[in-house]
Write a structure and sequence with these properties.
This protein is mainly α. The protein has helices at residues 28-34, 114-125, 140-156, 161-180, 187-213, 223-236, 240-252, 258-279; strands at 47-53, 60-66, 73-76, 82-84, 94-96, 103-105. Strands 1-2 form a two-stranded antiparallel ribbon. The protein has a two-stranded antiparallel ribbon with strand order 3-4. It has a two-stranded antiparallel ribbon with strand order 5-6. Helix 5 (187-213) packs across helix 6 (223-236). It is extended. The chain starts with 27 loop residues before the first helix and ends with a helix. The mean pLDDT is 91.
């Protein structure tokens, strides 16, 4: 007797010998049709217009910003530069007034004294030729320009060394983002590398001064995090003794968290390898 014996009373005689399992193999084309299609994400999906009032000229303006939770951290460079899945939020971390040119990293925007506002208006605003804020996305070139404007404004307003150094670091990261998308044989690759290293040098020197006369946190970073980043800067600048000293401070500190200590130990080995290679040349 078959599995469906007795189902005749329901008028389903035709299923008496029905095959339950389909043993035929689907074609490749059928499988491809069933496979989930990758979701193509557009950079604009992660952006929205955020409104600000310029503390220098009182203009109400909007700038493109990253929506919370729309981007996912994938990994970090050795110096903790964050890398996200489909858009680089670093491109959107400078706020620029399109009328007077006042610019700064988001964390410092609006924190101006009367004297600083006057100086920026006289030194930047009177010469500024305008900037377009309503682009759907900001390219790396847009971001580099904005970071340079922020750096100029930090110099003009005589910002603390920590702010100027951090702005240099963020500019270096944005330049690296552009460089990473270029073939290493392209002449622009080397030009961007030279520019990035100039930013790294200025950031390193600025942070050295900052840690000697500014309280922590500096640019939102605790002492161990900043010293770790500085140790990698020193490595890039081939200041290996300084890099080792900074790194030793991070590794031996009781307040260093396990994740940062693990990164510091990895960096220590990289510095050792680079020293060996340089000594054999």
């Amino acid at each position: 007797m078959g599995l469906f014996s007795g189902m005749e009373k329901f008028g389903l005689e035709e299923f008496k010998d029905a095959q339950i399992i389909d043993k035929s193999q689907p074609s490749k084309a059928d499988i491809e049709k069933l496979a989930p299609k990758p979701v193509e994400r557009d950079e604009t999906d992660a952006l929205f217009d955020k409104h600000y009032t310029c503390p220098v000229c009182d203009l109400r303006f909007s700038t493109r910003s990253i929506r919370a939770g729309r981007v996912k951290l994938v990994e970090k460079d050795l110096d903790l530069r964050p890398i996200y899945d489909f858009v680089d939020p670093l491109k959107y971390d400078v706020i620029t007034c399109d009328k007077c040119g006042y610019s700064s990293l988001t964390r410092y925007f609006g924190k101006l004294s009367t004297k600083q506002m006057k100086t920026i208006k006289e030194s930047v605003g009177t010469n500024f030729r305008g900037l377009e804020n309503n682009k759907p996305i900001y390219t790396y070139d847009d971001a580099i320009e904005r970071h340079k404007l922020a750096l100029i404004c930090s110099i003009v307003k005589n910002a603390k060394n920590g702010e100027k150094a951090y702005t240099c670091l963020k500019l270096a990261w944005v330049i690296r983002g552009k460089r990473n998308g270029i073939d290493s044989k392209d002449p622009a690759f080397k030009e961007l590398y030279v520019e990035e290293m100039e930013c790294i040098k200025n950031a390193y020197e600025g942070f050295l001064l900052a840690i000697s006369n500014e309280p922590f946190p500096i640019a939102g970073m605790d002492e161990n995090t900043l010293k770790y980043i500085m140790s990698d800067m020193a490595r890039k600048l081939k200041k290996y003794d300084e890099a080792a000293k900074l790194l030793g401070s991070v590794i031996t500190s009781r307040t260093t968290n396990d994740r940062l200590k693990e990164e510091a130990l990895k960096l220590k080995e990289i510095i050792k390898d680079e020293l060996k290679k340089s000594s054999t040349k």
